[in-house]
């Protein structure tokens, strides 16, 4: 069954057609790559799914629910977590607190509960802390728990964003260029991590420029060019697809 | 960590015995410091923690004070019983004015809050609904009574006000270290990322406005009880500026910083009264120098730490 369905998604900014009639399905439990040259509309597709933008036309169905035009935090609570292309951590807060942000949607207590420190609130805080620490360990940042996010290395900041997204208990996690700025060794570890996420029965949709990563990690690939889908299939087929080769390398003449 | 505890303990003891060594004038200065501390702590939720520029906080202070004054003088309800009424009125008022402007960013929100503050002040001067007494305000507000004991003299008020400061610190510290407090910080740091992490940012922006306003409303009740007469001029733009400056100068998001800021901002000008006009100039200069060399405030907040016990590399599976 497909977990996420995009139907005829269209979005333009002024005169620029950023996403043009894009449709594809994301099967539950799979790792899907979204690729395309710069400016192909990949991040816009992500922003449409996560509710940062509202599509002009088309619909998005997640887990049987229409999420088109829903507010971002609602979409997160339904089970879509994301990371950002340019790192968007809470720089002046600790790594642990960054991950706790992801726990927010799964917690309930409000201002009154906090001021009175009710037993329920205390239990919830304890549990949140424990699961935030678990996610930090999962990405290998347990040692850095009490360090400020801005003091982490670039690669670790990317991992921290993933931990924060995972803390929301997503069924689908959307990674926007997770390997950008990572070296060869970090990228290899990232591929392992992506597979470990999949082993947790979390579906993954990722944008990536690093072709070797996409080809190694993804089971299926969707290719965009100028906002339109030009190809879709397994990595082996995508590699051979003349339209994809043309889009990336240009034509001979 | 322990050293800090000793310092706070020593300051608390010092404050507790201070009225025995000071004359009525200086006790009254400390009373004003206390009221500003409550106001600045409440504004700190909005400006310091959530990073929302609010230069109209005096409006909520005014709504609280006038609610207490009107209900007390018209219906004879004891002023202490009106604390929740002041909080409710100010909180509700904040909800109404913040709802349409809350999506504004930074400087735009700041201008809108200045506008709201001025509207309140001018409405009060114009005797809105015929209940605010116009430019003369309201007089004859009853003193607070606790079990037949009437709080009247400065040093009696001192303990009442500073008890309220202590209660405020107690609750706000808990609030800082909670889901609510963290949510405010997330939205200050990066609103898009906060929303993307599952935080209803509009809800929390409104939440901190309402809570901050409600607390300022209670400060208004206390102020009305202390003065027994209130007038619109006690709630002008300058009051909002002072509260804002206390937060920024003391240390945005830091309770000790805001308290220190209140002492410096309200206390120092009193100490240097002999220098007459020069004191405000020196004070202004000090503010400028501070903002150049210590932008984070005198006592910036220390990062929250959590008990982290790393046992083994816990791996989660499905």
Question: How would you explain this protein's 3D organization?
Answer:
The complex is a heterodimer of chains A (253) and B (318). In chain A, helix 3 crosses helix 5, helix 3 packs parallel to helix 6 and helix 5 crosses helix 6. In chain A, strand 1 and strand 2 form a beta hairpin. Chain A starts with a strand and ends with a helix. Chain A is α/β, with parallel strands linked by helices. Chain A has 10 helices and 10 strands. Chain A has one domain: Rossmann fold, CATH 3.40.50. In chain A, the strands form 2 sheets. A 6-stranded mixed β-sheet of chain A has the order 6-7-8-3-9-10, sandwiched between helices. In chain A, strands 2-1-4-5 form a 4-stranded antiparallel β-sheet, with helices on one face. Chain A is globular and about 65 Å long. In chain B, helix 2 crosses helix 10. The C terminus of chain B is likely disordered. Chain B contains 12 helices and 4 strands; from the N terminus they run αααααβββααααβααα. Chain B is an all-alpha fold and 318 residues long. In chain B, the strands form 2 sheets. Chain B has a two-stranded antiparallel ribbon. In chain B, a hairpin with a 2-residue loop joins strand 2 and strand 3. Chain B has a domain of 199 residues.
Observed structural traits:
heterodimer, A: 253 residues, alpha/beta, Rossmann fold, 4-stranded antiparallel sheet, 10 helices, 10 strands, 40% helix, globular, B: 318 residues, mainly alpha, two-stranded antiparallel ribbon, 12 helices, 4 strands
